[in-house]
Design goal:
By secondary structure, the chain is an alpha/beta fold. The chain is built from 13 helices and 16 strands. Among the domains are: 31 residues, no CATH class; 266 residues, Metal-dependent hydrolases (TIM Barrel), CATH 3.20.20.140. Strands 1, 2, 3, 4, 5, 14, 15 and 16 form an 8-stranded mixed beta sheet that branches. Helix 5 runs parallel beside helix 6, helix 6 packs across helix 7 and helix 11 crosses helix 12. It starts with 5 loop residues before the first helix and ends with a strand. The protein binds arginine (ARG). The site of arginine has 13 residues, from helix 9 and helix 10.
Length: 444
């Protein structure tokens, strides 16, 4: 993060030579200077997620979607007389911070339609739901999400629609289908054998697993999701059971990594978590049953835990009404409390714990409700905010793009009223959202 360059920025602004300044700074060299689109954002305060501090009077300049300067002090004068296309967004008294990152969502799922009720809707309905959910997500301040499993390549479709500007939504890192084994958490176990219902992404054995990863990449995957253990919402699985061998996991990881993709493993049980770490995955999703050895292994291997510790509340309060199977409710009662204690243990041990909510288990747009729960179970507010910004960006391998208000990253900036490093619950009330320099929400 650049500091103390406010004066320089101001001088240059006064000359009206924005584009010259930007070019001189070696930034935005691709765009012809004459057409550069610049927006200057000022606010009362800024959460610097890289340093874990709050600074005053930030001035952030975004050109062609990327941040080109971050300074503090008096906001520069801009106006038509400068001759350049400079927009201004002033957020007096508000606190800005980088757009939030959720490492685990399912944009094409709806919490309100659970269990067998999903069969009342046609296949493409879920893509339509995804359009609404994408808007709710970005308006809640989440400008980047990893979509860890959807059917019909609907997450790729959503990403394409958002990037073309057809519909609003976050930057999506799509996994396409979650890869799983027969009868496992990512299979469809809801119907009797005569229906022959199964997930399209079942793969067992070396050749099938490797082919599956390549196929997902071919059709737009940017991350690979595997189901290494049973789960809460799948029928006929237990959360503790390991469902993939270390060798199977290794096959997936080897191909994913040579293709430049990270691997996220759904894993609740301790054996499955350890198998996934041994197999070389990059993040463990849920990570409910963590013993000390699993935490140590993850730290040594640089594996991040992405733990969805808000949704227990929602499922236990609303699940039955939404049609969630009694079997799943029972599993939630069993696993929720244990997962939260594992979270506490992992944070205390200094493991890398990032923000992953599993939105779709609860309604999209409520993602930030997990932040106060993360603080309740052992993080400081700053740690929780970093888990959803700079640390998430690191786990994504996207430190050049997202997760901080810093030169070179996207102009993904959100604002709240108040100081979230003191009271992180105010993140559930994001008033302003900018994505890539474009204002997505302005509800001040
Ligand atoms: N998708 C996960 C599963 O079905 C959700 C688990 C939710 N519960 C929890 N305590 N994290 O297993």
């Amino acid at each position: 993060m650049q500091r103390g360059c406010g004066v320089r920025a101001l001088d240059i602004l006064k000359t009206g030579r924005w584009t010259a300044y930007i070019a001189a700074a070696g930034l935005a060299l691709h765009a012809p200077a004459a057409y550069a689109d610049t927006v200057v954002v000022t606010a009362g305060h800024m959460v610097d997620t890289l340093n874990g501090t709050v600074t005053d009077n930030p001035v952030v300049t975004v050109t062609d979607g990327r941040i080109v300067s971050v300074s503090s002090g008096t906001a520069p004068e801009t106006g038509p007389e400068t001759g350049d296309d400079v927009r201004r967004v002033d957020l007096p008294g508000m606190t800005i911070m980088p757009g939030l990152i959720d490492m685990h969502v399912h944009l094409t799922g709806l919490a309100e339609i659970g269990g067998y009720r999903t069969f009342q809707y046609t296949d493409a309905f879920w893509t339509v739901a995804g359009v609404a959910n994408a808007r709710a997500t970005v308006e809640a301040g989440f400008t980047t999400v990893r979509n860890l499993g959807s059917s019909d390549y609907a997450d790729v479709a959503l990403k394409q629609g958002i990037e073309r500007g057809l519909v609003p939504g976050p930057r999506i890192v799509p996994a396409t289908y979650a890869i799983g084994v027969t009868g496992g958490h990512c299979d469809n176990n809801f119907l009797p054998p005569s229906y022959d219902a199964k997930s399209e992404a079942l793969a067992e054995g070396k050749a099938a697993l490797r082919a599956r990863v390549r196929e997902h990449r071919k059709y737009g995957a940017e991350v690979i999701k595997i189901c290494a253990t049973g789960g809460v919402f799948s029928k006929g699985t237990t959360v503790g059971e390991q469902q993939m061998t270390v060798d199977e996991i290794r096959d997936v990881v080897e191909i994913a990594h040579i293709l430049g993709m990270k691997v996220a493993a759904h894993a609740h049980g301790n054996d499955g978590i350890k198998a996934a770490i041994r197999g070389g995955v990059d993040t463990i999703e849920h990570a409910s049953y963590l013993d000390d050895e699993a935490i140590r292994m993850a730290k040594e291997a640089g594996v991040a835990f992405s733990m969805d510790i808000y949704n227990t509340e929602y499922t236990l309060a609303e699940g039955e009404k939404n049609g969630v199977l009694e079997e799943s409710l029972a599993k939630e009662r069993q696993v929720g409390g244990i997962q939260r204690e594992s979270f506490r243990k992992a944070v205390k041990a200094g493991a890398n714990v990032v923000f992953g909510s599993d939105a779709a288990i609860f309604p999209h747009g409520l993602n930030a409700r997990q932040l106060p729960v993360m603080v309740r179970f052992g993080m400081t507010p700053v740690q929780a905010l970093q888990a959803a910004t700079s640390e998430a960006a690191r786990a994504l391998g996207r430190e050049n793009d997202v997760g901080a208000i810093a030169v070179g990253r996207y102009g993904d900036i959100i604002a709240v009223q108040g100081n979230p490093t003191q009271d992180v619950s105010i993140m559930t009330n994001v008033r302003f959202v900018m994505k890539g320099g474009e204002v997505v929400k302005n509800a001040r």
